[in-house]
Amino acid sequence: MIYKSFLYLQGLCDPQSAAQCDPHMTNATYLTTRNNTYYFKKRIPSDLRCIFNKSHFYTSLKTTKWATALCMSSSLVSQTDLLFSNTRKKMNTMTNEDLTETIYAIMHGTKPKTINPNTNEWISVRLINHPDGTTEQVTEVHHEGQTSEEIAADHCSLEILTAQQAPTSTSTSLKEPINTLSDVVERFMASKTASGTVQDKGLEANKAHLTLLLDFFGADTSIRTIRLEQAEEFRNLLLKLPPNRSKNKKLKGKSLSEIVDMNLKPQAIATVKGTIQKCSTFFQWATKADYVDQNYFYKMPMPKDNRKESEQRDRWYKEDLHKLFSMPIWSEHKNIKHAYYYWLPLLSLYTGARLNELAQMKPDNVIHADNIQCFQITDEDEGQKLKNTSSKRLIPVHPHLIELGFDEYLKQRQGKEWLFDGLLTNNGDLPRDGFSHNASKWFNRLRKQNNLSHVDFHSFRHTVADELKQNQVPAQQASSLLGHKDQTITYARYGKDLNIRLMNKTVQVLDFTDVLKNVKPWQ
């Protein structure tokens, strides 16, 4: 077997004749690809897993050529089949414990007591379990009784096979259980769910990022085989993937490597950083739980985004705002299926508040403080959620919103549970992404239909931040209005909330009357 593989790899026979020399050559089911490199993967029969303490043999063949990989796979298939057969025979005469110790001895290079080291059986275990071992280690006791030509042939073929297989795992005790990546991910998700510290949306985000990790490495991969090299391969693939893969019908059913080969515009570096951060959080937990020894995703180097931080998010500029608020929804009160169509963009433009903060308000959350009408951004009622503790705040209502009829709308909503209808499911339940779900989908459709794809709802928040900056509003006042975490320990720990009258002056710095001149007041 090894000699035939050697002949094929040396070009002494073509693929057809190589296939004829071994019946397994026509079967490529044991080959998988990752980053265009072929891997050998074969399932260990369930009755033998307790002996080998793993579910699969899995190793890189270090080749991108299909024919070469197929021939190498053929040799490894034969070796594993022989190993399984002989192991079952010995199970009849040896206890599982003795057999496990024997396999352990072979895997770690010591002389076995019960398996003849002059047989292919011994070399099978060494080759499969130690693809990173040298030819001398594998063959040092295999040549007794062979001719010099046979020894040379086996040496050459083993050089090829072992040189083209990369180390994929560290040696671990057979007594130690093999923890697959999918198992550890499942335990991580269960831990986060039980802790109650992560919201449902955050859990879904974790699941999406870790599903990508599973797709790349394989669900049955031992988590301990993921080292720095493999982690960097994953990062490099992320940098080539396009954005919104799950929403692109053209990508449905394609593998990650196939998607990369399409050479589509890659996703933003910030998106890649987010995925790597989620993976780092997962591996940090796995490290504490003793599933791995090190978190290779922690502080992983990333390409620099050469844009200024202020340029990495688009804001709404005057021409775009004028275009948006001249649409029939605002200028003619047409196509208003729900009142939030009209009000949410206006409220965000004059508060800088997050979409979910505004969408989850109740009529009672519009209050007066020191005789100033304010939006109360809070999470006190069931269903209301905030990003962080700094998000809880009062935002004075801008006078222009009053001119556009907000007080009239507020009167219409008295006695209602929520300030806006149409944000719950048909069953009256809260959507998975919170109150913002329906509003976000509607606004995304609206802006894309009107060639405003370079901005989104969150861009209102950046617009407010930039307007405050251009008008030289102190950073502390801007942070309080926007609900940002304060950057200094002194202010965060010892400073009190800013005076509401000062906040009112801050809000009134904002002036969008010129771009809202076509907006018809609410009636």
UniProtKB/TrEMBL annotation:
Sequence ranges assigned to domain Tyr recombinase in this UniProt record: 311-507
This protein's UniProt keywords: DNA integration, DNA recombination, DNA-binding
PROSITE patterns per record: TYR_RECOMBINASE
Domain of life: Bacteria
Pfam families named among the record's database cross-references: DUF6538, Phage_integrase
Signal peptide bounds: none
The keyword NADP belongs to this UniProt entry's keyword annotation: no
Entry keyword Nucleotide-binding: no
Gene Ontology BP terms: DNA integration; DNA recombination
Gene Ontology molecular function terms on file: DNA binding
Family: Belongs to the 'phage' integrase family.
The protein, known as: Tyr recombinase domain-containing protein
Species classification: Bacteria, Pseudomonadati, Pseudomonadota, Gammaproteobacteria, Vibrionales
